Structure formats: structure tokens, C-alpha cells
Amino acid sequence: MSKPQTLGDLRAAGYKVVPVKDEMRNTLIAKLRKNEKLFPGIIGYEQTVIPAIVNAILARHDIILLGLRGQAKTRIVRQLTSLLDEEIPIVRGSEMNDNPFSPVSKFAVDLVQERGDMTPIEWVPRNRRYGEKLATPDVTIADLIGDIDPIKAASQRLHYAHEGAIHFGIIPRCNRGIFAINELPDLQPRIQVGLFNILEEKDIQIRGFNIRIPLDVMLVFTANPEDYTNRGNIITPLKDRIDSQILTHYPKTLDDAIQITEQEAVIRREGKSVIVPSFFREIIEQIAFEARKSEFVDQKSGVSARLTISAMENLISNAERRAIMRNEDPIVPRVCDLPHVLPGLTGKMELVFEGEQEGAVKVSKALVGKAVRETFKHYFPDPLKKRNRATHEGGQQRSQGNEDPEYGRIIQWFESGNKVEVSDDMPRDDYFKELDRVKGLKELTKKHMAGSENQTELAPMMEFVLDGLHQNSKIAKDEVDHITSYKDMVGSIFVGQGKMYEED
Fold first, then answer.
1. CA distance 257 to 397
2. Bridge partner list, 89
3. Residues 100 and 218 in one domain
4. Is the pLDDT of residue 231 over 90?
5. What is the pTM (predicted TM-score) of this model?
6. pLDDT single digits (tens) 151-161
């Protein structure tokens, strides 16, 4: 069945025009009844943000999403178009998506008066009914709402007071659709005032014209908390006119964070398979969790999910580089690859004064170390856990040994003057052989880690044990020219090469 092409055809077909907020509400209700996923790819908001958005749409509210950077605000806003009808009819040639039954622009009003039921219509898809503007200090009222267009006036020989001389801004062009403003606080206060009428009276005024043009538009805003930046804030009257303020947040669980990174990061590489042991995924996410509570990182600015995405991609890329050079397959990262994630960290954290004094690289290394230490506890017994090691003999306490039975053989091997040296470009077989020299290391790794039967994955797991012991101050570690050395802690202290800086 062909779609109506004129106003008369549309009327005969019994088509009913629905306000955009009712249209979204109706689609949302239908999706809820079918238990359809509302926001594909949005992870961790199922019990918090998404119900709040659903409530706001059911209430026909304009919305502001308020949260720190990297919390999927823009992605959510752009997915709101899925709640619009696939197509709607407009007066053909209209700049404002005019409703054929009730046009508002002078062009469409004149055309309907002239042509009547023969007024031509066109069908606009949902993606053309969405508009977005990044708020910057140079945005003007003309950009958003409109102004006199001297070129149009001159070319059509119109007086400046003629309504046809108006150039419509981006908001009127989103009539019968959705318009979003990102980073709302960056909009100058006098420009924010220009949004009052749209939010409350649902119309616009353009200077020099004694007219009010009604709009049917859903407004959505995104913003960082106002105390994050000195660039500006949301003026109080504007906040009062936005119906629903919805707070976003970072992933609350490690599993949600891992899912997000797996979804967004470029993990697959052409020509070679990639194996990323689960503990690496946890380490990468734990870096962000540690940064979000670090006293050296400015918590008002936040730590974006892009940090973990970039870190994971850098980790795999370094492993890929080694695999290409050594003609090895599959690609498997190593703990000694972790220093190569630093370029993905240092530019994505804003440091407080104390952090700046320490330096971004030093703080990032400390966060990686803390992430390794926390992840190590998920797989192995805590090396620092206190145990009863003494018995009484004749009223005297006698030590039963200074080392945890889980790690005793490994630590004693290093105390005997031995050390291990590995690097991020070492051939796979040499890498495993070097780590296998440590007495008891392979047995301990196999005991606690699933998947350690495969030598390809076993070697990085064995190095993970050594790095975990280092982060718990059981053995020492040096990194020089991409060569990582694990050695006895006591000997290193005496030569002034103790454990690297670590944030308290």
C-alpha cells in the first residue's frame, strides 16, 4: 500500500498526528509490554538510570542527564530516537517539519492555504527528527532559535519585517522531534535564558517579529556536575523548567565494567586469535576503580570508561606487536606488558595538586600496582593475612617459620640469591622457561587458577603470581629498559632498590 502523497490523501487515510512526547510514550509502553530491551549496549543502568528515564518519558518530561564524563549520557540520548515512529508526514519543503493539518511556519501555512488538499507531503524518517548541539561559549540565540536572514530577504526581495525573512535555528528545525544539548553548563547564561519559553510555553520568539511560533519538541540535556568546572553552570530558572534530572554513574560492579570494556574495546585482531585471561580483564577495570577513590585524582572530574577501553587496547596491541615480531599465535598479554597501558591512563585523569607533584606517570604506575594487588586477592590467599605462627615451650614463644606455607618455596628461592628476568619481547618458550625456574611457582599457579593447563596461558599467570607477591612486599621488582626483574626483597632494600613508590 502506497503512502499518502497529498494532504487530501492523508486526510482520507484517517491519519492522526500525535504530539512527539505522546508518540514516544506510546512506543515505550508497547516495548515494555513486549519486554523489549530499551537501550541496547547500555550496561549497569538496568536498576537505576533506565527506570528513571522510563518514568520521565511516561510523564512526558523534558530531561537532563547529569553525571561525570564517560557515563554513556550522549549514547543514551541518541538512542531515544528508537521511541519515535519510523516515519511521519510533513509539508513537503518545510524547514520545521510542519504538521500538514496544523502548519506553523509561514512557508507551510501559505502553501496549505494555496493548495488545500493538493498540498504535497513527504515522509520523514526518525533519524531526521533528531538534532544535537554541543554547547560552547560561542553558541548564539541565532544558532539555536533563529534570526533575520539578510541574504534570504535580499534574494526574495522581502522586507526585514517580513516573516519569510526568518532563518530558523536548529531547535525549530527539530520540531516534532528530539533536540539535545550536550554540556549545558558551557552555554552562556544569556543563551540559557532563551530556552525558557521552549521549555515552559512550548513556543519560540524571534527578535523583530511580533509572533510566537508553537513547537512540538522534546528537549534533552546532558551536563557534568556544576562543581566540576569553572567554565559555567546551569542557571537556576532553567533547572527549574527541566522536568526530570537523572543522575548517571560509573559501573558499580567489576562484572559490569568488564562487559562495557569488552563491548567497546577493539580486542579482535586480524590474522591472529587473541586470548585475554580473566585476571587481565579484572586488572584493567580495577585500575579505574582505584583511580576513582585515589587521593591524587580529582574526583570531581571523574575517571571515564574510556580509560579502561584505551588501556585494554594498548595491552593487547603490545602483545600483538610481540606476536608479529616473533611469529607467534595466539596473542596473549603478559604482566610485563602492563607498563604499556600507561599512555591510555595518563591523559584521562585530572590530578589534584599532590598528584601533579608526584607526576602522572608515577601515579598511574601506582594505580596499576594497586589494581594487581587487589586482583591477586581474588585468586590467591592474601600473603599479608596474619596466621598464628608461635607455640609456647616452657613459657617461651617459639617461631614456627616466617613464611606462609602457600608462598614459602617461592620466597625462599628468591632469598637464596636467585632472580627472574622477563621482558615484553621475549619469545614465548624462553618466557615460560625463565619463570619455570622458580621453585613451586608452577604448582601454586595450577592449584589456584583455572585454565593453567595450557602453557600459553600458564606463563602469564605465573608472572601474575610474582607481581602479586611484589605488590604485597614479599619480593622485589625492578623495571629497566622494558626488562622486569623479580628478586629478593631484603637484598634489594640494602642496595636501595626496594619496592617502587606506591600511593598510600
1. 48
2. 123
3. yes
4. no
5. 0.86
6. 666 676 665 55
